[in-house]
Amino acid sequence: MRVARDHNRRFLFGIMIPTVLLSVLLLSCRWDSTTGYDRGKTPLVKLNGNVLYAEDLLQVLPLGITGQDSVEFSEKYIRNWVEDVMFYQNAERNIPDTRDIDRLVDNYRRSLIEHEYQRRLLEQKFSTEITDEEIENFYNDNSGMFILNESLVKGLLLKIPAKAPDLQKIRTLFTQTDDESFEEIEKYCIRNSARCEFFYDNWRNLAEISALIPQSDTSLEDLIEERKSFEMSDDENIYLLSISEYLGKGGVEPLEYAREKVRVLLINTNEVSYMRKIKEELYKSAIDKGLIEYYRVEQ
Description:
Layout: H1 6-26, E1 43-47, E2 50-53, H2 54-60, H3 67-94, H4 99-125, H5 132-141, E3 152-161, H6 167-174, H7 179-191, E4 195-205, H8 206-210, H9 220-226, E5 229-233, E6 237-247, H10 255-288
Helix pairs in contact: 1-2, 1-3, 5-10
């Protein structure tokens, strides 16, 4: 087939591409064993022994594209394909010694196959379910692994517009710790577009809480050592902060905070142990079957 000149190429694509793609969708492809084309595919462009098939183009065509848009997209895709083929073949001619590249490709392929096989083995063998008992036992036996590098707190933070009504009432409720007071505080925040950060039941990073309040010359960590409740303000808001529990850096993470970390560690430990066992069994099998040949190296 002769190559079309630039001035009539667009016209050729405008006719050829929609027709070929439609035939691929509606008809079974004919195949001639003498052509060397892939069975069941329709050749679209051939260049130096490389073939671009209509099916390849169909896979990348955007959904819903039609008419001139599809012609322009197809023309650009084919041009890119031709440029890639030419560039690769030019690179091959200029880098005749590809032994290092072949070795890297083989190593990468081997790594991918091993990774996929390991993934399937672990998927068949293990569930991600770890019992609470397993987590607690691991945590108790390995508490030295869970040293805090950040301070943690529990408590309550309110950010209230300075012009909100009944501020004295909310200050009083803020000092209470019963469920009824918390419900009133929550309703008040909803009515007055206030922000309520309730973390009496879960540990929070102190740095996260500190970022939510006005900054002062004294760090929040130092302030907490002196008292547990604070009222601060800026031009627009009043901030009420109450700290019920505090754990400083260097202490042991509480189990509730470390639970997810322990679960992940247990899963990883189980998987590593299982894979070590599999490889040991394969090694023993190779020994038992006499598959390994050792060669003596003359000194």
